Amino acid sequence: MGEMSRMSASPATLDEWLDWLLERDPDRIEPGVTRTRRLADDLLGGTPTATVIAVAGTNGKGSSVAMAASICRAAGYRVGSYTSPHLNDVRERFSVDGEQVAADRLLAAFERIDAHPDSAALTYFEWLTLAAFLVFAEEELDVWVLEVGLGGRLDAVNALDADLALVTNIGLDHQSWLGDSREAIAREKAGILRPGRPAVYVDPDPVPALRDQAKEDGVDLLSLGSDFRVGFVADDGQQPCFTMQGPCGERSYALPSLSGRHQALNAAGVVALLQHPRSPLAIPAAAVSQGLLMAAVPGRLEWFYRQGRAICLDVAHNAEAARALVEALECRGVGTAGRRRLAVFSALADKPVAEILRPLVGLIDEWWITELPEARAASMIDLERALADLGAGPVHRESGLLGAYNAALAASNHGDEIVVFGSFHVVGPLRARLVPTHNDPDRRAPCA
Q1: pLDDT for 72-126, tens place per residue?
Q2: Cβ–Cβ < 8 Å for 256, 267
Q3: Which of 58, 124, 137, 258 stands 20 to 30 A from 240 (CA)?
Q4: Distance between CA 4 and CA 75 in Å, rounded?
Q5: How far apart are CA 86 and CA 427, in angstroms?
Q6: Mean pLDDT score of the chain, rounded to an integer?
Q7: Residue 141 pLDDT class (50, 70, 90 cuts)
Q8: Backbone angles phi, psi at 27, to 5 degrees
Q9: Distance between CA atoms of 299 and 432, rounded to whole angstroms?
């Protein structure tokens, strides 16, 4: 990219900056860490003094980042977290001690990046990642928790050497960039691991390629199933919990506040990493319990209550996430006593639409579908065909997300559930309308 893409004058607002970044390189993805590493070295003036935690995987990354940051805060550390994508406001990606970063802090970081002679070569994601590094460094935080955006080895976040690395489950996603097998994708995600440094791999169906790569590189890896195990306990109406059994014996922890039994596995991975024998952090058991109960992730199995209906928002956009959504929905018992479950759904064309829908078809009584206002949107015909092939119940077409949601709401009865899922592009716009409403008091009820 040449100098023509650089600005003659800096934008005045955060929205102007984002418009400029998006307009100069629409949909550009260019994996690689060289650009980000070079600018990070120059702008940060060396390696961060904070403990850097990197989180990669197919699903569970955002939840794991939220739990890790919450636990570290409960332990007394000052913490920054960086996630992607966002639902409504780009500042959702940047958090300092649990609060969104102020717009002026991001503006200052953008101006510093733009002043670097090589900034024109950066992609949108690389620019935002560097902004996170700069904001966190200015805040002089103790811990940075960074979500890897795409893969691992060539992701911009991997420009920093993680002191602690977590890999969640590995599924088939972003195959055009990462490879067409779990083995190939595992090797890409193993790229965040560093020789001699602590790491955890928490996957109920582990891919040998990741553990093999970790062993070859001399990574101090703990893996679910071989190094620690997770179980569930619920005694006489008491708070259900999960147990971890490993080198230090068996310990019990309250289930995290995040909905879905699968979150216990995510929590176990986070706890195993933060309490790794070689972790530089001191995390007492009380901080673990407090942090797990305080963690929250917008748009992931998030429940609202409106007009007597329970509204579930979930960004599930691959088969593994859809199965986790099913597990969480099955906990709630809808489908008896005349109560129904309705769905508002759409997706991007490059996602496995049929595989996302397959686990949900048996739980949904009626469907409302629409095309997303995105260049990569799946067509109405493709959505309708996928549901028909799976034998789904009545399917209704609507011309937009709000129309689909309102139609489902109008067709529902008191006590019904409406499940909104399929993409960040589905959940984000509708969540913006629901946030001011009162949260369902039962949304954190664990699945026993």
Answers
A1: 999 999 999 999 888 888 899 999 999 999 999 999 999 999 999 998 888 888 9
A2: yes
A3: 58
A4: 48
A5: 10
A6: 86
A7: very high
A8: 60, 20
A9: 10
Alpha helices in 142-245 (DSSP H): 175-178, 182-189, 208-217
pLDDT tens digits along 383-414: 999 999 999 989 999 999 999 999 999 999 99
pTM: 0.82
Q: Which class is 3-294 in CATH?
A: alpha beta
Token readout for 332 is: 């709630």
The CATH architecture of the domain made up of 302-434 is Alpha-Beta Complex (3.90)
CATH 3.90.190.20 placement within the chain? 302-434
Do residues 43 and 134 make contact, with C-beta atoms less than 8 angstroms apart? yes
Q: How far is CA 68 from the centre of its chain?
A: 13
Contact 127, 62 (CB under 8 A): no
**Rounded distance between C-alpha atoms, residue 183 and residue 245, angstroms:** 27
Give the CA radius of gyration of the chain: 22
CB neighbour list of residue 21: distance below 8 Å, 6 or more residues apart = 124, 127
What angle (nearest 5°) sits at the alpha carbon of residue 282, between those of residues 279 and 283? 105
Report whether 240 contacts 446 (CB < 8 A).
yes
Residue 43 token pair: 């702008």
Closest CA to 211 of 235, 189, 181, 239: 189
Residue reference for tokens 């990462």: 178
Pairing mode of beta strands 341-345, 366-369: parallel
User: Do 39 and 300 touch, CB atoms closer than 8 A?
Assistant: no
Q: For the chain, how far is it from start to end, CA to CA, in angstroms? A: 55
